[in-house]
Amino acid sequence: MVENEFALQMQDITKRFPGVLANDRISLDCKKGEVMGLLGENGAGKTTLMNVLYGLHQPDGGKILIDGKEVQITSPSAAIHYGIGMVHQHFKLVDTLTALENIVLGMPTKKAFLDLAPARERLMQLSDEYGLHVDPDTEIWRLPVGQQQWVEILKSLYRDAKILVLDEPTAVLAPAESDQLCQAIHRLTEEGRSIIFISHKLREVMEITDRVTIIRDGKYIGTIQTKEATQLKLAQMMVGRPVSIVRQPRPVIEKKEPILVMKDVNANDDRGVQALKNFNLTVNAGEIVGVAGVDGNGQRELSECISGLRKLTSGSITVKGKQVTDVVADPSFIGFIPEDRQKTGLVMDFSVAENLIIKDYYKEPYAKKNILHHPVIKKHAKELIEKYNIKTPSGDVKVRNLSGGNQQKVIIARELDAEPVLDVASQPTRGLDMGAVANVHDILLKERNRGAAILFISAELQEVMALSDRIIVLFRGEVMGVLDGDKADASTIGQMMLGQSPEVAI
Amino acid sequence: MKRKFSAVFALILAFSLVMTGCGSKGASGSAAASGSKDDAMKGSVAMVMPGLITDEAFNQYTYDGMVRASKELGIKTAYREEVSQDEQVEVIRQFAQQGYEIIIGQGGQFGEALQTVAKEYPDKQFVFSVATDTGGVPNLTAATVSYSHAGYLGGIMAAYTTKTKKVAMVTGEWYDPHRQMEASFKKAVASVDPSIQVTAITTGSWSDVTKAREASLALIADGYDVLFPCLDAAFVGVLAAAQDSKDVKVVGAVTDMSKVAPDVTVGSVVFNWEELGYQESAGKLLDGKSHVLGMAENGITPVMSDMLSADGKAAVDKAVEALKAGTVEIDP
Amino acid sequence: MKSVTKSKMIRMPLIGDVMMSGARTVIGIVMGLVAGGILIALSGVNPFAAYASMLRGAFGSLPAFSNVLVRASPLLLGGIGVAMGIKAGVWNTGIEGYMYLGAIGAAVVAIQPLSIPPILHVLLSFVVGMLFAAVWGLIPGYLRAYKGVNEVTSTIMLNYVAIYLTSWLVSSPQPLAEEGAFYPMSKLFQESAQLPILMRGTSLHPGAFIGIAICLLFYFILNYTPFGFRTRMLGSNINAARYSGVDTKKQVVFIMVIGAILGGLSGAIEVTGLKHRVYMEFVTGTGYQSVAVALLAGGNPLGVILTALFFAALKAGGATMSIETGVGASMTDVIIALCVIFVIAVGVDGRRRMKKKTAKAETAVTTEGKEDEHVV
Predict the structure, then answer these.
(1) Which tops the pLDDT comparison, A202 or B105?
(2) How far apart are CA C263 and CA A131, in angstroms?
(3) Which chain C residues are Cβ-neighbours of B88 within 8 angstroms?
């Protein structure tokens, strides 16, 4: 029999959820020794497709061929049996077990007692072979996130995966680790293994993959050779229309009054690891300072320090000369759009009206003499719903029932309506559709023109470049460089995001 | 949040189920003869109890006494077991409303409730059982067996048994009757030989066998060779400790312990709960006073085995006579 | 975004949900009663006669209904205490213990011959009772808020401590205890410290009315005050509460202590209203039943009124049922437990269905707005 060229073929996969067509006749194939990219925006259906492949969902239509033979993948163990390995975006590891134990976990064994010695040998051999070095005896929770990913990959390889699915693998990696991953991928494909590389980051896809399949809104858009693609082309296929994030003209604000001044700020993340190192930053009135950087390089901690949710270990932060450390941001002074809308920014079971006052509920006119005044609260909601064009039948509707873009509008209305001197917007467009993104951009620009100082944190380089007057690049809690928004180019910023310090800092 | 909910959910279920306790029959079987109501209710008795009528302790025996009275005298009876404290008044009142002429609250926790309802129903008779306090209510009578007499006889038996001259009383917790029992126990021991060392301890539980056993072993290690347990189910632990040790004897109280451990029991002072229940139900005590059933009233019965010396038996007989005559200076 | 989805944006109508949740509770109760009826039949009693007797015992006459009110008193106060916790996202399962502490506190004042008007004497007893309970509630509250100790565990453990502490305090020779008593109990309360009986020939004290008033008060507090807003925010999303500047730890302590105060008041009313003494083990399970009351009410103060009265009716009617028909006394508890289980079981099933419906509506509108895996 002629050996099949394709390790995997997924044909016309359809998956329906109640009310949603998550995958609509999507096809994806992957040759042996090939890196196949799977590109799509958040919510496009990438993860659903991969869950079908891994046996977590049963497709409503279409078929899956492994090595040219049609198979039914009814469970993850079936998937493993067919040589499919999956590294999820959120790792599925047992935190309190060691790396070695995690790798062996779930393996069938004939012995009554666990004998880890051969497993350890095999693991060491694997990690040497692919350059993914992990201490087998360290508990998972002690390992840096990057190494946790190595464990996930090694776990798949230990089970001799022929097809390895990596779901947004670089989101958690430092640049050096990304390089390591690239080398490992290279070695894996040399051996004839196949990689499916899921991402919504164009640059990575361009660098790593051989071919790319693009999906959008649960639909198959196309597959192209990476060599023949450009970032712009991929972006267009991904978002379905020419990318419209372009730098908009803006009035020059002459007055340069410093509003946010951060001096030698140090702060730790939740695990107690230093997240901001001797951080200095000044944001002036009428200026948008964009913070670029790979997620997890201190952006979250930066925004939380300014808004008083995180304690500094040293240094000072002033806004308009006022110390703001440890004081939770008051939207009449600092507007703060938090990174995680649903977990932090909103009370999902509260109504729109209530969410609009969750910072002011105890103040006049909403409360007088410790009694809430519902008519005032409702009127306030009605005004803001109109002003910010929040699509909801009334202020009494629970925020849970609004779309993501409208939820974000609720936060924006609450945080910015009192015209704060400083706006901190942390990933304000994450997960929003293009229309909603444009709306957020417009609002931030208006704020700038009003004279507010704006700190704009985003992982999307394009929008940082489109919006910012100045751009700082954050790498491992430090400022790698500061660039002029008008003159910055993507490749320079990209280099800085990866920790290389070019000499062009302004 | 969801996980937490289910955890608490499970917890609530567990509690609900614990609250249900074990299955038990509630009220008496003698069907209501609705025809000639006045006749049927003549001399009728209702008994409320904190525990189960199958507990092989005072709940069961006093209930048995009521059954005997019912058979002998042909009176109508009713009962409700496991009456919790918050429903005492309500339950007693309902029995009064139904026309029962004698209502007996079995146990010291019924005092307030009986007084309250007795004042509301002056034409009914109420009995506060295992207590001595009538609260001055004319139609409320108190009745119990004499813990003092029991302690005194136990003391005589213990004093004639000990070789090491160390005897100990073991009880669950200090309620007042047990204090009285301790006092008369000590008095009796001293009356035999003042040099005998007497102690009294509590285990903290009336029913925990292990606790009773460990406490007893500690006493035995300390040289005590006669133990005087006054416990509910936990007395088995005291017997076991005595059986596991050399030359340790037990003087029983409440029940005849020679039935459980004849090899170590020299004798017992038996509480005649059944007699108490009978006398209360038969309407013999209803005078608004406090009755303590001692030797003379058949409230306590001493039983002795051959292990008790002849001198000892003679001394017990003598003490019984003295108690009957009322010449011993202890509480009733 | 597609225009079709916009019409689906809102899940209407919310009143329907309320009706549904009410219907679920009723269905669960009916199923519990039917199952209880089968058990009654198995024990050889006609279940219809038994339930008729139960109904009579609860609602047959004014005195019968007064029994319901008397039994509802501790359930109302305990229930609202737990319900506040549920609204704030903490499980205050320590009502039993707070009741003991409240009773002890009340007894300390109530046994003293004070020459003050009865109303003041009673109120002073309440205040001291609530104070004792508040201090008691501070322990699990502090441990939960600042040390991360699970409040269910700590409150239940403290319940045992409270029970034994009370037993010790009312056994002679402690100063509170009655001397020469045949059962451990405190001294008799002064007449000026006893709650009035509202209806001759019954035990009806004002406890249930106080309880209902307090349920209404807390309904108001939850929905119409900044404090209530803060509490609900804490229970719905602790991150958002923190982000809004709420001192969440302090709020947790507050809520635990409020629950404790209500539990303490419940215990104080029980002893000043019913028997005018603190007996050893005067509460057996009422505190835990309060948790069931609050749970069945979904933490809603108005629901607490209904469920507490329902539980009380079952208990009072059950007592009559066992007296009149000879059904085992513990059958009442079995029926209560069955009702709780069925209501929760039906509720959980319904909740799951509702969640699916919500998810459907949500995914329809926010497909693009959510990460892939949320859609799943």
Answers:
(1) B105
(2) 62
(3) 275
Chain B neighbors of C291, CB-CB under 8 A? 8, 12, 15
A24 and A102 share one domain: yes
Neighbors of chain C by Cβ distance (3+ pairs < 8 Å): A, B
Q: What is the pLDDT of residues B174-232, one digit of tens each?
A: 888 898 999 999 999 999 999 999 999 999 888 889 999 999 999 999 999 999 999 98
Return the CA Rg of chain A: 25
Cα separations in angstroms, C9 against A166, A492, C5, C108, C360: 34, 43, 6, 60, 11
CA distances to A27, A31, A215 from A9, in Å: 8, 9, 16
* Residue of B82, B86, B109 with shortest CB distance to C274: B86
C149 in contact with B at a CB cutoff of 8 Å?
A: no
Is 0.95 exceeded by the ipTM? no
What's the token pair of residue A365?
Answer: 């006119």
Q: Give mean pLDDT, residues C48-71.
A: 93
| Interface probe with A: pick from C86, C354, C368, most Cβ of A within 10 Å | C368
Cβ pair C291:B15 closer than 8 A: yes
Nearest to C237 among A348, A402, A436 (CB): A348
More confident residue, C228 or B30: C228
Q: B176 φ, ψ to 5°?
A: -60, -40
Residue A430 lies in a domain: yes
Residues A154 and A274 in one domain: no
Q: How many domains does chain A have?
A: 2
Could you tell me if A105 and A184 lie in one domain? yes
The residues that bridge with A8 in the sheet, in sequence order, are A30, A66
User: How far is C39 from chain B, CA to nearest CA, in Å?
Assistant: 11
CB contact under 8 A, A47 and C236: no
Chain A residues with beta carbon closer than 8 angstroms to that of C243: 307, 309, 328, 336, 338, 344-345
List the Cα angle B204/B207/B208 in 5-degree steps. 65
Would A476 be classed as within a structural domain? yes
Q: Indicate if the pLDDT at residue B37 is higher than 60.
A: no
* pLDDT tens digits, A325-350: 777 777 788 999 998 888 889 999 99
Q: Are strands A163-167 and A194-199 parallel, antiparallel or unpaired?
A: parallel
Give me the DSSP letters along A315-330.
Answer: EEEEETTEE-TTSPPP
In chain A, residues with a C-beta closer than 8 Å to the C-beta of C240 are 343-347, 358
For residue A403, is it within any domain?
Answer: no
Q: Given A190, A207, A239, which residue is the final one in a domain? A: A239
In-domain check, residue A383: no
Pair A210, A334 in one domain: no
- Mean pLDDT taken over chain C: 86
> Which domains occur in chain B, in start order?
25-145 (3.40.50.2300), 147-270+300-325 (3.40.50.2300)
> Chain C closest CA to A146's CA: distance in Å?
21
pLDDT at C201 over 90: no
Residue among B1, B85, B133 with most chain C CBs within 10 A, to mutate: B85
Does C372 lie at the interface with B, CB-CB under 8 angstroms?
A: no
State the Cα–Cα distance between residues A366 and B122, nearest whole angstrom. Answer: 62
Instruction: Answer whether residue A306 shows pLDDT above 70.
Output: yes
CATH of the domain at A91: 3.40.50.300
Q: Is C52 left (phi over 0), alpha (psi -120 to 50) or beta?
A: alpha
Indicate whether A108 and A216 sit together in one domain.
yes
Predicted pLDDT of residue B21: 39
Cβ contact A392–C367 (<8 Å):
no
Residue of C nearest to A367 (CA): C226
pLDDT tens per residue across span B120-161: 999 999 999 988 888 899 999 999 999 999 999 999 999 999
What pLDDT, on a 0 to 100 scale, did the predictor assign at position A420? 92
- Tens-place pLDDT, residues B151-176: 999 999 999 999 999 999 999 888 88
- In which domain, by residue range, is A72 found? 6-239
Residue type, C343: V
The yes-or-no verdict on residue C345 having pLDDT over 50 is yes
Same domain, A333 and A461: yes
